[in-house]
Design brief:
92 residues; alpha+beta; 2 helices; 3 strands
Length: 92
């Protein structure tokens, strides 16, 4: 039987990559009077539900999905939280 997993994926620019969108948002925040904000970085949040035979298999598949589609490994990093969903899925 396979297990259903829920993944929350966070993709962000590498620290060495300039973030013009983050700079623009920071400028807007400061114009609103919030001078205590030093830095803003913009990223992506993605939710994925998948079925896998084990948690290790789910992590391996998510790494592959992130590397090939969801993140550009040259300029972005990613991390994910993986949670088993309580109901099991039967395979046919």
């Amino acid at each position: 039987m396979t297990q259903k997993y829920s993944a929350q994926i966070y993709v962000t620019l590498r620290p060495s990559v300039l973030d013009p969108a983050g700079v623009a948002v920071r400028s807007g925040i400061q114009q609103m009077g919030y001078d205590n904000v030093e830095q803003v970085r913009i990223g992506k949040y993605i939710e994925v539900t998948l079925n896998a035979n084990s948690e290790d298999e789910a992590k391996t598949e998510l790494d592959r999905i992130c590397d090939l589609l969801l993140a550009n490994p040259v300029i972005e990093t990613y991390r994910f939280d993986l949670t088993p969903v309580s109901e099991e899925v039967k395979t046919t």
